[in-house]
Write a structure and sequence with these properties.
about 170 residues; alpha+beta; 6-stranded antiparallel beta sheet; Cathepsin B, Chain A
Length: about 170
């Protein structure tokens, strides 16, 4: 269990008060980092894909709450967003995928581009995103599946130059 989770539980009196909580809210409460919520109503899917990719390049913390159980994803469960990646195959076809991590440390996702989807993954495609087939909690899923299952995601933002004036 991470020290951050223990600190947040202490902040909320005990672990029972944070069960099913939002990790981005926890980061905001502990660090005072501003957060922003995004969803399909904010922009189109391509723009939101770019938001995720840009947030990752800034090393901002991102998470999404699953609102629809599908293809092995668990409803009412929060997943960490690691990046938005573009894969290009040997004939030039591109796929936009969201790279995620299940905090339970195991993978449940079994849809397109999962570790079990051996028909899609080639050595070249795995190399493009540094992906390995292992039950390590890290998985990729199509951006369309992400927004069907997740509906929204949150980003905790941070810049060295920001000051807290509260």
């Amino acid at each position: 269990m991470s020290i951050l989770e223990k600190a947040y539980a202490k902040f909320n009196v005990f672990f029972g008060n944070i069960d099913g909580g939002d990790p981005v809210e926890a980061i905001a409460q502990l660090t005072n980092m501003p957060i922003r919520q995004y969803g399909p109503g904010d922009n189109n899917i391509d723009q939101l894909f770019d938001v995720i990719h840009q947030a990752d390049s800034k090393k901002w913390f991102m998470a999404a709450s699953c609102t629809k159980s599908m293809e092995g994803l668990t409803s009412a469960h929060v997943y960490t967003i690691l990046d938005a990646v573009k894969l290009t195959d040997n004939v030039g076809k591109q796929w936009n995928l969201i790279k995620m991590r299940n905090p339970w440390g195991s993978e449940g996702y079994n849809g397109p581009w999962s570790d079990k989807d051996h028909a899609r993954w080639t050595d070249d495609l795995k190399a493009q995103v540094g992906h390995t087939h292992a039950d390590d909690g890290v998985f990729l899923l199509p951006v369309e599946t992400f927004f069907e299952a997740m509906k929204y995601f949150k980003v905790a933002m941070y810049e060295e130059k920001w000051e807290n004036n509260s």
